[in-house]
Design brief:
mainly alpha; about 0% strand
Length: about 80
């Protein structure tokens, strides 16, 4: 409960300082940050599916960020 209260308070305070797109990117990386935290702090093992999931999240974010620059500008 304590961690949720702190992160929610920080999110509420600082989210207004970033664009919605950047906030979306940060939230999309939450599962990756959680897995890294679990690996280092809790000693959890990351499986091949975990690595695949992280790669798919990063690939999706990369495509969504570069889509406009790569595809929409070339179509004009």
């Amino acid at each position: 409960i304590f961690a949720t209260l702190i992160t929610t308070a920080l999110q509420t305070k600082y989210q207004k300082n970033v664009t919605p797109a950047k906030a979306g990117i940060i939230f999309s990386f939450e599962p990756i940050f959680a897995a890294i935290f679990a690996f280092f702090v809790l000693g959890e093992k990351i499986t091949n599916f975990g690595y695949l999931g992280a790669a798919l999240i990063m690939l999706g974010l990369l495509i969504s960020e570069l889509y406009e620059n790569l595809f929409l500008k070339n179509a004009k």
